[in-house]
Amino acid sequence: MNGAVNMNDPKISAKELDSLFKPKSIAIIGASSKDLSIGNVIIKNLVHYGYTGKIYPINPKEPEIRGIKAYPTIFDVEGEIDLAHVIIPSKFVPQIIEDCGKKGIKSVIINSAGFSENGDEGIALQKAFLDTAKKYGVRVFGPNCQGIINTDPQYKAYCDFTFTFPEPGAVSIVALSGGVGAFIMQSLFDLEIGMRYYASNGNACDISISDVLNYYGEDEGTKAIILYTEGLSNPLEFMEVVKRVAKKKPILCMKSGRTEEGSKAAASHTGSLAGVDISTELIFEKTGLLSFTNEEEMCQASMAFSTQPIPKGNRVGIITNTGGPAVIATDELVSAGMQIPALSERAINILKQTQLPEATIGNPIDVVATGGGSHFRSALDVLMDEETIDSVFINFVTAPFTDTDEVARNIVEVNAKRIKPIVCNFMTNMSLERFQVTAKILKDGGVPCYSFPTTAAKALGALYRYHKVQNRNIGEPKTFSVDKSKADSIISTNKNIDTFLSSDKVYELLSAYGIPVADWRLVNSVDDAIKAAKEIGFPVVLKADAASLVHKSDMGGVAINLKNEDDVKRVATEMKNKFNASDLKFFIQKFMPGGRELIGGVSAKKDLGHLIMFGIGGIYVEVLKDVVFKLSPVTQVEANEMLSSIKATKLLDGVRGEKGINKKSVTEIIQRISQLVTDYPQIQEMDLNPIMAFEDKAFVVDARIKI
Amino acid sequence: MNGAVNMNDPKISAKELDSLFKPKSIAIIGASSKDLSIGNVIIKNLVHYGYTGKIYPINPKEPEIRGIKAYPTIFDVEGEIDLAHVIIPSKFVPQIIEDCGKKGIKSVIINSAGFSENGDEGIALQKAFLDTAKKYGVRVFGPNCQGIINTDPQYKAYCDFTFTFPEPGAVSIVALSGGVGAFIMQSLFDLEIGMRYYASNGNACDISISDVLNYYGEDEGTKAIILYTEGLSNPLEFMEVVKRVAKKKPILCMKSGRTEEGSKAAASHTGSLAGVDISTELIFEKTGLLSFTNEEEMCQASMAFSTQPIPKGNRVGIITNTGGPAVIATDELVSAGMQIPALSERAINILKQTQLPEATIGNPIDVVATGGGSHFRSALDVLMDEETIDSVFINFVTAPFTDTDEVARNIVEVNAKRIKPIVCNFMTNMSLERFQVTAKILKDGGVPCYSFPTTAAKALGALYRYHKVQNRNIGEPKTFSVDKSKADSIISTNKNIDTFLSSDKVYELLSAYGIPVADWRLVNSVDDAIKAAKEIGFPVVLKADAASLVHKSDMGGVAINLKNEDDVKRVATEMKNKFNASDLKFFIQKFMPGGRELIGGVSAKKDLGHLIMFGIGGIYVEVLKDVVFKLSPVTQVEANEMLSSIKATKLLDGVRGEKGINKKSVTEIIQRISQLVTDYPQIQEMDLNPIMAFEDKAFVVDARIKI
To answer: Touching check for A331 and chain B: CB below 8 Å?
Structure first.
């Protein structure tokens, strides 16, 4: 991933980034008089967009560029420079950054390519200019990037070579890919949503996506954030930042590369490692981001977020003046987990008095195509008063025989009170002037309008998702009392990496962390095996244990359900003769049939922590792949979610007369495992297969741990 | 549902509908001089749209309306009238239809409401005018409907009161709901797709959706059809028509009311029966329609269908000039079942010679933002020649520093050859004149352009889905040799409806249709039970059978796994004493443990046939609801699809050392069941639970049949 070099940077404060997003003066180093060159387009864009600060084109030969006085070097500029655009060949960049440092420039945007995306030479160049930048305290945005845009009329800083000139608004965008960032910005422009800030930081060698998100989080003008990425370079920093920001304002995000092929395509253009990455989605979930898999849906949803309050629940009231679109909307709302409750008697009585005789009184309220402003208004007022309604969905077709402006004015008046969120599927012909007027009333009144019922319903669904995010408190991970010194001694004696712990160490380690395991002994002889089996109590499992026995089970080194001393003696003797290994030991364990077979697992993720897996074992995992993942550390709430989100979750409650399992024991095992791997990041993999769960308790029956 | 009265009508020929879609003269009965009234708007629309035929406003008082000579009655019109709009109160409609008949008018559109949607009186009125219409051979469109639009410059017939004036095109629309129809038409207009015909027929008392689809099917100008419905009034007629049409041209369709709540909303505005209706989706599947759950996606897809050939397979070549959007597109294409194969060495060599040095040669081909017309062209030519590529996806961002028109012209030139389908995600700012020119080149060249990579990828995915439809031949249902006279005698003796067949009749009926059942006997005494068990062979199942015993199992009337004569004697005696019923009989059956427990089921659907259900029994159906449905008659191909489309399908092949089942036996049972219920439509319900499947054979072990 880009920007891996800045992992140990201190977080950049919002104040420090003001020089980037609110520059009072900008130098364009590599300004060019050549039309369509980036060094020319950036100046053109700044001027065209009405940048309020000073523009200093830097060019060794030209006296002026696009009618603006140019300077041979930045040192020839008399005043202070907040921000510099760098658009010169990569090999000259380290020297220019040195100059910028000397001149006291606070931030630079390096549009030039030819750095870490370009092999060893580029990586060296990037390191070189970054060291210089640190020396002088210059903040670097990029390289190999587009830049930033600030739509605030006080600045109007269009520091980018793109071609969309957005209206001011409340949505800020940050995108790893400039191509995707640009079309998201364009989409907001087309939807007339308005935008606050834009940032696309390419290689992100210094100022990271997290720094930008932190800045947006502190910005009062930003009501909602759109994030596009193909992966995260510093996931822990990212999590820390967005956890904080996501509680304050919605972050709508999309991570592409969710298929094997997509992730390959991402790797080919960013140089990142291929491989489908489920951890980014888990980070989004853990930190409360609203993840989308469809960028159009994400842009459409941002319109609702930029104008509407967040609903307090999932109950929608629908007002419609045409039947079919209400059916479509209902389908989508319900699919998004929302309800369309019946109205109260009080509401129905009011509607009976205020609606046309041919109206349908219910939910949906069909005011019919001839319904006018007063009919929409009474329906809106009723729904705003209705305690069992959390949000309002409107289908409004501009029937030619009604005063559509009056309808719009009534919607706007109610919307202005911001009691409950409103979204509107506005079905009209925008090429007719008459309806453009109606549309403008709605738009100016901050009513989010969509052209399709499903699209509008999805946007309301996204508002509801954010309600759930705000109300989902996963809590802090529990810290169980464990025998850490015992665990330390087990882990520390295992110096080799990429090795599996021996069986006895596995169970000792689990026990040290209070994870119930089936009772066991490790012994050296057949006689001791018999003795151990008697201590544990029959039936038992017997496993041969020796360095040479990796696939015990396939080699006949595992025998289950040994019911008495004779069984143990016979089997142990057979194994001894068969394997004939000098280091042969016997692992004896309580055999516990009849429970529900569960599985758990852990895998370490570089720079992040561990993925914790849970599922139902046996054919469920083999046939149905019925497993779920969370990121460590896993809290009680998350552990509960793991149990309830597998497809066959009902099985845990018992079906067909079978007993259910003790879920509390299982969630505790998950959390203790989480605590173990959080304490020992060097644990690379764990397989807990199976965990046997009974009505009263659960035990880890077989486990492997790789350090 | 609307239009149930026309179930026995003869199909209306395409020729007969020419008077509706290609009228040479139109009378507006109920023409009004009042602005915004429907009787005025329709005349305004006809004139505004440039209708090429004669317009006859009919109004008893006005000498002219909107400057057109008006007539007191249709009899005052001298010439012939092809089509009449009827916009008068419902009670006058029967008389007016009589007049239309006498005048020789061929088709009428009844815009007026107040018929079958309005209770008994309305139903009577509808029946009255329909009888009259039949007497004179007048075809009726509506009532309670919008009307039709024909965009053909030869006619320009805008027989509707809506407000969107579409350009001619190749997509025809038919919609039950006028509201949805109108916004679909608007969407095609906004997307500049162009439209051929529009029809929204409201109550559909005579001319049905099927008749319209048949008309569109015969129309050479219609390349693709969009259908919206909330249910089907005459599903068999519909199936017969669309099966034929869907092979000739794609029918993109959406049925709303897919949730319980959505179907309630549909019921409230159409008066149809509530209840989620899965059979319509099964009809779509069986007849080869392309079903959508998102109307925006459907409209967007129609753009690709109206201009592009159908791909011959699922292999996509991607050309992009920006990285991120290619990643997003790849994700979506792969999710839609498509592949992004590697290119041949030959292709790579050509690309290496023709692309910029910084281009990425592979699939995607990244021609980079500075790539121009020649680079796009060489990439396109390579993909058109590449044998392993079936379609082409283009990401084209209008980089300000390239000649975007030249790029567009090259895409258009290749597109014109129609070798393989092309879709284009065209990322631009349409408010800039420069890019409007580029867009127009693409549009005029018939290149389907989208604003989001996912949206474009979904459209290409829809083209691929139609490829699969064209290539999916479900074949004809097999006719197995069965003992029909035996079955006749069983069914005919069961005169009561809503009753369950007795156990012996159930098994006799199944056996008559060659469906293997576990060997069984029905006897009257304990001694005969023992004798029967010996004949069948142990172990056996014993069930008490008497009219009073409905819930046998709960009442202790079922005993399984009886291993010898003593067991049978003891259990049968206990049951005899316990139930003490004079009609008590014993049902003895072979007990067959150890197989895979499957379930089958049938339920009759009014006016359609039967739904056939299949799944894996036990916890799979209880916990995972892992069942699939098809419509009878089920062919071999469909039966195979049933087995392979359940989630736990792998279980049928055997996992964890378990043996797989004989799938052929199971698919034969499904087909024989299908033949049975097709032969006896009076069968209302069947439960085959369980069907026990073994490695060599499968048997129905327990079954209920309701007539």
So the answer is: yes
